[in-house]
Fold:
Amino acid sequence: DAGVIQSPRHEVTEMGQEVTLRCKPISGHNSLFWYRQTMMRGLELLIYFNNNVPIDDSGMPEDRFSAKMPNASFSTLKIQPSEPRDSAVYFCASSLRTSGGIFANTGELFFGEGSRLTVL
Amino acid sequence: KQEVTQIPAALSVPEGENLVLNCSFTDSAIYNLQWFRQDPGKGLTSLLLIQSSQREQTSGRLNASLDKSSGRSTLYIAASQPGDSATYLCAVSHRGSGNTGKLIFGQGTTLQVKP
Structure:
């Protein structure tokens, strides 16, 4: 398996521009996570999808951020307009979440290599 | 609110030494705990996953323990090697409200193993 695939690996853009980050989860996984990592705040969960449906987007910093998962094999995280404080490494991760109501459990998480975003 | 703390923040040891990394969490209502390794400029690699009903997991020279009642986990690395140099992150899958299975991370311990 190729693992979680993210693109681009590096993005440098100017303030105000739109940024789109892409993720292909591991085939067969039903949960997808977008995380952001900075020196100051460490790893923060931005949004989480289960079976392509957004479950928890409480970590999305503001309306400038949006995420979609149109099918089980693709997700995007979009920032419009971008600001210098958005500079960070953005990670996508996927897992196989077991079903079972309150006993549902997030399985082992597998991360992509990350997309390093620099907004000038 | 679940908080995860890792101590120490950084650790430097000579090659061959056995070492222990610590992780503590404030809320024992977890599904599982995962230890990850992160190399500079890279993503996170899952090392061990311990379910809330388990006490420990082992993989090669790595052993992770979980004491849910006291909110603690340790990662034991035996016979450390320079290739073990990396940042080690602990994360708990918090039950919380809404059953989101959200992973909450500690800040990590940066390990340097000197030849």
